[in-house]
Automatic annotation (TrEMBL), chains A, B:
Catalyzed reactions: diphosphate + H2O = 2 phosphate + H(+)
Cofactors that this protein relies on: Mg(2+)
One GO CC term on file: cytosol
Pfam families in the cross-refs: Hydrolase_6 (PF13344), Hydrolase_like (PF13242)
Enzyme class: hydrolase
EC number: 3.6.1.1
PANTHER family for the chain: 4-NITROPHENYLPHOSPHATASE-RELATED, PHOSPHOLYSINE PHOSPHOHISTIDINE INORGANIC PYROPHOSPHATE PHOSPHATASE
Protein name as it appears in the record: Phospholysine phosphohistidine inorganic pyrophosphate phosphatase
Organism encoding this protein: Mesorhizobium temperatum
Chief site of localization: cytoplasm
Coiled-coil blocks: none
General function of this protein: Phosphatase that hydrolyzes imidodiphosphate, 3-phosphohistidine and 6-phospholysine. Has broad substrate specificity and can also hydrolyze inorganic diphosphate, but with lower efficiency.
Keywords, sorted A to Z: Cytoplasm, Hydrolase, Magnesium, Metal-binding
Amino acid sequence: MTRGVLLDLAGVIYDSEIAIPGGIDAVARLRQAGLAIRFISNTTRSSKQRVLERLEAMGLTVTNADVFTPAHAAREWLLRNGRAPYLLVHPGLAPDFYDLPDRDKRAVIVGDAGEAFTYAALNDAFRELSAGAELLALATNRTFRDADGELSLDAGPFVAALEFASLKRATVLGKPSPEFFLSALASMDCPPDQAIMVGDDAEADIAGALRAGLSGALLVRTGKYRQGDEKRFDPRPTATVADLAAATDWIIARRD
Amino acid sequence: MTRGVLLDLAGVIYDSEIAIPGGIDAVARLRQAGLAIRFISNTTRSSKQRVLERLEAMGLTVTNADVFTPAHAAREWLLRNGRAPYLLVHPGLAPDFYDLPDRDKRAVIVGDAGEAFTYAALNDAFRELSAGAELLALATNRTFRDADGELSLDAGPFVAALEFASLKRATVLGKPSPEFFLSALASMDCPPDQAIMVGDDAEADIAGALRAGLSGALLVRTGKYRQGDEKRFDPRPTATVADLAAATDWIIARRD
């Protein structure tokens, strides 16, 4: 029986800030069917506040507690481990790291920094790691679908670069970290084997959710999806469907 | 019996364009002892012409055929495989890729591009790879000793980033590729088991040379050497010595 649904945002609900047709209506249908929903995003170019405003502008009402972002997980990690952040993130994400206490020890936090991934910034981060900082990856996605419709480099390649240089392994906070899926599910009291994930990233969303123990993971052919993605990573999606509207049909038809 | 010696350049002969004390004299002593010498460098910020001029200015006379660089190996690879270069290299290296024939198919060539490693340049290279280009790494060194005396990011981390994003494996042309060591040895008719490598990079120079079958590899404590490097990578150096002068003593004392 399915009681909870985790939805990715970019590529599932919207694309380049424009709602994907049928998506907002699909969320309403899932809610009407009595399913609990959380939004679980690896997008690290906007603050959570900005994400909520974007969804509101599309006609989707969500509360702060409905949305799980890696930056929030990183804040909790920093507080728990007594470290201050050294940010290698997009300027739009920086507000999520305001107001953290000063600490002697640091952690390099890597998000999808885009143009802010300069040689100088990467080299400074590498030197922080050499001096003892820990390495935190908000996400390890390889690519995202850029405004021109083509795939562009996401945070993952730059995390790989810093791991290679520093001989350190990153702690991954966003998808595909099992803890990230499980914390979203815990917030709605839903065990993983009664939950379905819907995403457009066959690796971070789909393989990640199935490894975390979710009962199903549906790959949508919107967003960054490219032909053949369903066979590129293991475990493979439970099903591959056109979009969130089709995923909703699939979930409601099989919910019991 | 030792008949041939391979010498790294940056960190062994010079540091930031300044000759390391005793190095030039050590090369003369190796030559006087009748040992054949080749210089084998992963430096990819200068053209080969510029490297030769730098050595000449330090009082070391070497011919074009004495120096092996990854760019030369890359030119040969491109001609052999019928591909045109897509360069992600330092501007100083570009002259080594002039005058190659036009081809439909391409290969992305990654060197130590320094500040030229912008997000836009890396993303363009990734899109070339997605469109079918092959990935060639001039080197995979993690770090080099920068002008300020600290370690900075070399080409390797950026090769790792592009491999991660494209799901392609790079063909490595410089050290630690066994072919690179063997082609330098072949040019002086010296079998690997009669040759010694001297370098400051425990991974690319030392482990690389020993994996290529050389009879010995001496790690010098100049250049990028950091305490503990001799234990960081396998196989470990045959010996660790102060500098090229000490390495020369070691080689001449044990040559038979």
